[in-house]
Amino acid sequence: MATRLPVVLCLVLIGLSSSCWLIACASEPTANEEPLASWNDQPSRRSIVEFVERVTLEGGPDYVPVSDRIAVFDNDGTLWTEQPMYVQAFFAFDRVKELEPQHPEWRTTEPFASVLRGDLKSALSGGERSLVALVMATHAGMTTEEFEQTVIRWIAEARHPQTGKLFTEMVYQPMLEMMSYLRSKGFKTFIVSGGGIEFMRPWAERVYGVPPEQVIGSSVKTRFELLDGRPSLLRLPELNFLDDKSGKPIAIQLHIGRRPIIAFGNSDGDLEMLQWTTASDRPHLGVLVRHTDGNREYRYDRDSHVGRLDRALDLSGELGWVVIDMEQDWNRVYPER
Amino acid sequence: MATRLPVVLCLVLIGLSSSCWLIACASEPTANEEPLASWNDQPSRRSIVEFVERVTLEGGPDYVPVSDRIAVFDNDGTLWTEQPMYVQAFFAFDRVKELEPQHPEWRTTEPFASVLRGDLKSALSGGERSLVALVMATHAGMTTEEFEQTVIRWIAEARHPQTGKLFTEMVYQPMLEMMSYLRSKGFKTFIVSGGGIEFMRPWAERVYGVPPEQVIGSSVKTRFELLDGRPSLLRLPELNFLDDKSGKPIAIQLHIGRRPIIAFGNSDGDLEMLQWTTASDRPHLGVLVRHTDGNREYRYDRDSHVGRLDRALDLSGELGWVVIDMEQDWNRVYPER
Question: Which ipTM was obtained for this model?
């Protein structure tokens, strides 16, 4: 129920000489009258809300203290559109074109030659190996600060080839609302993505309300060195960590250090993250976003080259995961412009 | 100045129909009438407080928004006593004795044989290599959950060989107050230690008020696998990351993703972390804890085999780092029991 009256909250904290208090007020990035306004009243929404109410009911049998309310979200295909290709692949392609003058050899070397010809399908025909080669060649050889600026410039202007929207306008409104809703219930929201950690951080706080320290992703190695006497971190063309499949629970343990109680994913790349989250003895919730909406977004699952959802879907019934049907469950896909 | 009157804070938030707010109230682990009661009114305390007031003064020229108030702390020798040896080395030694029945070969293999003979000096004569060998042999071959339980059991009872105190009673009271003080000023406090990330996490929240996701340290590799059908993370006897020296800024970037504005350290292992923190164009503060108190704690710097402070001390003047003199600046070292 949306309340249209101004809400006044008066919080009185009495510190009797010795206690300390910390008050953090964060305005949430999505403004909406009702917390989950873009979600239809369907079983998947009801299951999620029922779970959240259960674990936040003080004194209830499934109560989870605030410190353990960790929710993890995949990014590509879970928080924003990943078709016809990962957004970061578009970034890598644009970088190849930008850097081409310094790399004449790319004109005759794959996958670069295909990118320069505009033949993106061929460029990616080598699968993960091609993508890693493109990323190493275009995301390294600069400091972390320079890379951050490159991403900020690109993401401010880059547009989706089919909708013409900014990529950051193609985040899912219902998922923005879900993250806000969970945060309002004391959850800490983390992104756990196969995408580059430093590719997401420069805009994740603005777009998702997730600060850099709560963004986990794939990374290249870096080297600390003094450049002109200035301490710098240089990005090296060497993979440090691939945060996909079984890498996701490993990264969750390394970065977060405790097991989430909620995990949202959309593909087989999220399978192990959901298994890890939902194998505990505590209350837990696994959710798959299923791309069923060929009109408003894309319709794909078992046969897609991007965001393939196959084994995780097979296991979802047995493991009690909620499967979101984008067409049925969401009354809006993208934020209003 | 301590205020002994009850403090009443009334916070009024007006959400005009659409904004969301999040309020987090955390009680701080150390109760004290004055925020920095164990700090004498000396230049080092004054410099730190002056800095904090400057960066939190809204509208001031050096104001830093809450989201960028990141403070990092080394652990061994900065937050707790590291003499006569790192606490984690005592843990590894106890593990060697515990696991010896399963490893008869250790009776004739160094550094294990020395540990079993109780000759800890010889055991560590191989330097970092010996320590890594001991850690790999005693911290791996189990799941992350089993290791956590092992640490919890050990830290609850293990005592310092010279004071007979629990190791967790040998944390520095002034530093507990400093972390609380910074948190009360909107800072997020992180531990960035050469010690094992999973060795610190099980007790860091209780002892320091730092949650697992804000603890950064050295790590072993882990492997995700189904053990008896149950998703598990198995700890492998292989170093994943050594969070020392230039590893510290690298780990800060990987885990936090933005540059701290305050760094506390005590040894040359913290040099690069302090350089990285204090090289930015923003307000920044580097602090070294100098072990000058041979009566209440230990007196050591340039010649110590543990926590050697040499180059960082040389650079502290030129780089404007605050050097804390434990004997002069702290009126109490450990918490009252």
Answer: 0.90
